[in-house]
Amino acid sequence: MLEVGTTAPDFCLDGIDAAGQEKQIRLSSLLGQGQYLVLYFYPKDSTPGCTQEACDFRDSFNRIRNKAIVIGISQDSLASHRKFKEKNSLNFPLLSDPGRQVLESYQVWGEKKQFGKTSLGVIRSTYLIGPDGVIKKVWTKVKVKGHVDEVIEAI
Fold it and tell me: Which sign does the torsion angle of CA 21, 137, 7, 130 carry?
């Protein structure tokens, strides 16, 4: 994982914005808004853990919105993101990284164990990035239950 105190790698990815429109989103543009950025990486749209995590961020939006911008990133397609966002009434952008460049630059793509099997995939992780572009906190191998409260407390 990238360490606290280092500059977050910039990126530009296609995504579905908060209003449900396709849009390219660049990290440096988000940081220009003067808020913290909660960048959370998740394995797959519409799976139980990922749905719970997204809905927890959605349900906590009023506690976060004046302090931070929330962005979810996975390697799922824009079509998958659109369906996931609409089905769960998500109120924050989802970005698509099918080439895994951002997943790899944030060191969240790698070997993981699930149900006794080892495979390559997205390691559920969250980065809290300050308005100055510096990583303030990192959560790795995130357990979904209670995670959003930990993020809000850190902000």
Answer: positive
- Give the other-Cβ count within 10 Å of 38's Cβ: 24
Q: Which CATH architecture has domain 12-154?
A: 3-Layer(aba) Sandwich (3.40)
Whose tokens are 């996931």? That residue is 84
Residue 76, token pair as written in the block: 């799922």
- Strand order in 36-41's β-sheet? 22-26, 12-16, 94-96, 68-74, 36-41, 125-129, 135-139
Quick one: pLDDT band at residue 84, thresholds 50, 70, 90? very high
Q: Say what percent of the chain tops pLDDT 90.
A: 86
Q: How far apart are CA 124 and CA 121, in angstroms?
A: 9
**pLDDT of residue 118 exceeding 90:** no
Catalytic center residues: 50
d(CA 129, CA 21): 24
